[in-house]
Amino acid sequence: MNKLLIISHTEHYLDEKGIVVGWGSTVTELNHLATIFDEVIHLAPLHKGSALKNAIPYSIKIKYIPLKPSGGKGLQKLSICIHALYNLAIVKKYIKETTIIQFRAPTGIGLYVLPFLKYLNKKPYWVKYAGNWDAKELPLGNKLQRWWLQHKISPETNVTVNGKWQNQSKNIISFENPCLDENDRVFGKKLITKKVVEDKVHYCFIGGLNANKGIEMLVNVFIKLRSNSLGTLNIVGDGVLRNQLENEAKKSINNIVFHGFLAKNSIVEIYKKCHFIVLPSKSEGFPKVIGEAMNYGCVPIVSEVSCINQYIQNNYNGFLISPLSIENLRFFMLESLILSKSNFDKYIAINYKLAEKFTYQNYLERIQKEIIS
Asked: What is the spatial distance between Cα 14 and Cα 21, in angstroms, rounded to a whole number?
């Protein structure tokens, strides 16, 4: 039997019925990944408290085994060391039951799981690195893990990363982050044929409401825009800045709606009515929401970080905020308000075609051909 062991930092919770649920986009990806294996075991932390709204159960049989959660801010980081032996014992136990392993980095447990996989494990494995592979500034833990993957990992062990980079060794493989199934593609195609900019231009932001994601900059710029064509800014997600930003938005004459966390089908409804997705992030890997938005006819206005400029080009299929600043964000927001119908139609047609790269079908075919084989 072909058995896969996945080790990740994906947060899991028990819902009100006592069913294990996890971060929606990751669980969906693993559900698809499980279709090409006879059995999948997922080791990941189980947290106390209420599950997030976008957390979902596994739709097919994946055996979930809880790890002790660790990491956080300040002294909380000590929990990485405190729970290391317990978590490694779980990893060691379930490695015996599997034929291949996927480790999802960067994460706090990577500081001890990556050396364990190299020196104390005989099973083949690959690493999915979801962060910005080319980032100049990183938290120390992420920097150490990237260095390890660049210099210490065995040549036969593959690492999948976002984007293509100079001096990339043969085992560092560029992979798109999957987020679209066949139904998404069919619905997206119907949607973009009908999507037009009428009297109002609508925007969305989807992500964490924190300084790194640039949401404060976006809200401040949007509040000060003046145009009869300006529609609604839909903000999906939650975070430490939400209360502050909601209070600022209440003082504005422009319409800003905070939706909190939403399930995938509700996010699709946001894409359906919006014309642009705005992500002024300071750092990213390649957010899945860009691929999703492109599929549903939302033109990206995004910062030029990581590999994003390998997919989005100014005056071709979107707008790159470079360098990232309030002035440049405001400039491209104003540009979006005067984008011609013909260019809007051209952009969304290009992006829909490009979004094929972000399908689960493409992802699974590449996993089978380039990783498992």
From this structure: 6
CB 245 within 8 A of CB 213: no
With a cut of 50, list the residues of the chain below it in pLDDT. Answer: none
Of 161, 171, 153, nearest to 131 by C-alpha is 161
Nearest to 192 by CA among 269, 294, 302: 294
**Which residues, other chains included, contact 37 with Cβ-Cβ below 8 Å and sequence gap of 6+?**
2, 3, 4
* CA–CA distance, 256 with 279 (Å, rounded to integer): 15
**Is the Cβ–Cβ distance between 304 and 286 less than 8 Å?**
no
Give 272-302 pLDDT, tens digit per residue: 999 999 999 998 888 999 999 999 999 999 9
CA distance 351 to 259: 25
Enumerate the H helices of the chain as residue ranges: 24-33, 78-82, 84-95, 110-119, 140-151, 182-194, 215-224, 242-250, 264-273, 288-295, 326-337, 341-354, 360-366
pLDDT of residue 305: 87
pLDDT score of 291: 96
pLDDT for residue 349: 97
Q: How many helices (H) and strands (E) does the chain have?
A: 13, 16
Residue 276 contacts residue 253 (beta carbons within 8 Å)? no
Q: Which strands, in side-by-side order, build the sheet including 299-303?
A: 255-260, 230-236, 201-206, 276-279, 299-303, 319-321
Q: What are phi and psi of 227, to 5 degrees?
A: -165, 140
pLDDT in tens, 100-147: 999 999 999 999 999 999 999 999 999 999 988 988 888 899 999 999
- Let me know if 225 is exposed, middle or buried by CB neighbors in 10 A (0-12, 13-18, 19+): middle
Return d(Cα 329, Cα 210) in angstroms, integer. Answer: 17
Q: Please say whether the beta carbons of 13 and 46 come within 8 A.
A: yes
Nearest to 33 by CA among 124, 128, 112, 119: 128
